[in-house]
Design brief:
heterotrimer; A: 274 residues; mainly alpha; three-stranded antiparallel beta sheet; elongated; B: 220 residues; alpha+beta; Arc Repressor Mutant, subunit A; 2 domains; two-stranded antiparallel ribbon; 10 helices
């Protein structure tokens, strides 16, 4: 099963052209609503008191909805499938002949159906509440307080203007700052001096002519390894050691000018350590 | 200042001026504090209310406080003053309504009513806009934080008190605002289904899975 | 909107609302432009002027433009208490938050969490506002004074007890704690914080805490 089964949001285009007929699949949900919203929409199509709702019919409608949605290759959140499973289960229990002995466990299917209808009523009530709130006269949309900011006299309130939310925000912003302070920077990778020295010794035969330090130093890799500055610095340090050993000559024409290196013509014999 | 401070007509003028000048709604105490000693703010408020009734500007009670505002039926005239309100998504509005009608509510309560888990940004946005506040903790296991609405919410929606929420009394009478589900009335809550492995197993036709799941889940 | 746009009483209401909600004085042209076609703005203005004459709010003409303003003789009512509402500075709010969650805390504790030295005025202000109190002394070198919050603090933030302060879970739920939360991040539960050792009265051997507090406040 694809991972997108579990995506929390799903978007359906409104099935605009769907027929008015009761069985027609009317998909009109946005990404933030769940199976309960779909059930409520389907229940409305039965046009009865939610408590007198036919749960078996509702279950059929919902299963058809889920099937149709999947047929159209809409990815479907897991929530929808769990509800489908539960509804199918409930429907089967409602339709099965009642066993002689009382059910060994679990509530009666009628009770479960009533509970579902009640939940739908609760959600429906909140849907109505939203509609009621939306038509209330809203400040700065329908009703307006005095508009002249110049002439406004500020009447002080004895209350301090800070909410618990402000307090939380203030707290969190500091604690996260604190966390940032404890952050340890990544260790900088340097070009080891020993490597620089060895490399420079190897290069000596090729440094017959004056060569700029920057040319002598290795090129830094843009993504990994020591920085260019580290290569140059270590190579400079190594070159000074070799100058001291009499193997190399260095010159600089002026402060901040390029430093030139070349191997020394006459010098002390090389003393290579075994 | 020559007029007596206790002349009701004079006190009415003062209340009128204070309400007009105030930066926000004023409480009875706010008014009383500013009026001369012994002035009857309640009577003055009533007089102002009567005087402005049906006018282009009216006295309104919001969040147990008082303010002057333009008449709602003239909204169409106020095009230049209108501010495009920050649009709340359907989910945010529904969440706000649940908090308003059921308060104090926990996050789990909200999710239970909506049947979906609450999107991360939703509550955050409502808190940030100042419509919702943290109210306290419920004395139940886990001591979850409860949410409620603010005075700003009442001011925004022109509500005098929470009792004035439209339809609240009827919903309460019908038991629709109760959080508790009667015993044995448990409906599985898909939004709480947190273990994806279980869901997967339905699909794979695992032996443990109820067979009916095959009907519609296994077809892909 | 059922009333005729040309009913003079209706036009008067409109002019009243427009003047009230306008951000500045309106000219006759401004009014005419915003009123329905054919409405008599001049007559309406005159009606508004007459209606408000002698009231707490009056119609004023400035440079051929019109606005509502409070009656000049009531100016004393307005000007006497012109002051900004009390707002906590960012530093004060942050300090208060640290004290609330980490109490009992010393000054050094606060500075350590905030990463900046604590301004003397900040703590004084919180003490003066009554949100913060001296709790005692810590039994550690220097015996530093510890701070905690007061009942007024609980009242301001509508908290029944300190245990009701939102914890890390709620901060996450509100989207405040998002990314980069270090592994060991914990929000202390101040209701569990105990400092049995260092209650003031134990420390000083007398019950007169306020006197001690005075000593302390004056010390720095």
């Amino acid at each position: 099963m694809s991972a997108d089964l579990f995506q929390s949001q799903l978007e359906f285009e409104a099935a605009d052209g769907a027929a008015e007929a009761g069985e027609a699949l009317m998909v009109d949900i946005d990404g933030y609503e769940g199976p309960l919203h779909v059930l409520l929409m389907l229940a409305r199509q039965q046009k009865v008191d939610l408590l007198k709702l036919s749960i078996t019919r509702l279950a059929e409608q919902y299963l058809a909805f889920v099937q149709e949605a999947r047929r159209r290759r809409f990815s479907l959140a897991a929530d929808y499938l769990v509800m489908a499973a539960w509804l199918a289960f409930l429907k089967s229990r409602l339709l099965l002949p009642r066993p002689e002995r009382p059910a060994e466990k679990g509530p009666e299917p009628e009770e479960m159906a009533a509970a579902l209808a009640f939940r739908l009523m609760k959600l429906e009530a909140m849907r109505k509440a939203v509609e009621n709130l939306k038509v209330r006269p809203q400040l700065k949309r329908d009703v307006f307080t005095r508009g002249d900011p110049e002439a406004q006299v500020v009447i002080p309130s004895r209350q301090v203007d800070a909410t618990l939310y402000d307090l939380m925000v203030a707290y969190v912003s500091q604690r996260t700052k604190e966390a940032q302070r404890l952050y340890t920077p990544m260790a900088v990778e340097a070009f080891p001096l020993d490597d620089a020295r060895d490399r420079l010794r190897d290069m000596l035969p090729r440094l017959k002519a004056w060569t700029g330090l920057r040319t002598v130093a290795p090129r830094a890799h843009p993504d990994a390894g020591p920085s260019q500055a580290s290569f140059v610095a270590s190579t400079l340090s190594a070159s000074l050691e070799l100058v001291k050993d009499g193997l190399l000559e260095a010159r600089q024409l002026d402060a901040f000018e390029e430093i030139y290196l070349r191997s020394r013509e006459v010098g002390f014999p090389l003393e290579l350590t075994p | 200042m020559s007029a007596s401070f206790h002349d009701p007509a004079e006190v009415e003028r003062m209340v009128e001026a204070l309400l007009f000048a105030a930066a926000g709604p004023l409480s009875l105490e706010d008014l009383q504090r500013r009026l001369p000693e012994g002035a009857d703010a309640v009577a003055a408020l009533q007089a102002v209310r009567d005087r402005y009734a049906g006018r282009g500007v009216e006295l309104e009670t919001v969040a147990d406080r008082f303010r002057l505002r333009t008449a709602p039926d003239l909204a169409w005239l106020m095009t230049e003053e209108r501010e495009e309100p920050r649009r709340l998504s359907k989910a945010a509005l529904e969440t706000l309504a649940i908090i308003a009608y059921h308060q104090p509510v926990t996050r789990a309560d909200i999710e239970q009513v909506r049947g979906v888990s609450l999107n991360k940004g939703t509550l955050d946005l409502l808190l940030e806009m100042g419509f919702v506040r943290l109210r306290g903790r419920r004395r139940s296991p886990g001591r979850p934080v409860t949410y409620g609405t603010t005075d700003l919410f009442l001011e925004q929606f022109s509500l005098a008190t929470l009792a004035d929420l439209p339809g609240a009394a009827e919903m309460k009478a019908a038991g629709l605002l109760d959080m508790g589900v009667p015993a044995g009335f448990e409906v599985p809550d898909p939004s709480r289904a947190e273990d994806p492995v279980d869901l997967l197993s339905l699909d794979e036709g695992d032996d443990d899975a109820p067979e009916f799941a095959q009907d519609f889940v296994g077809e892909e």
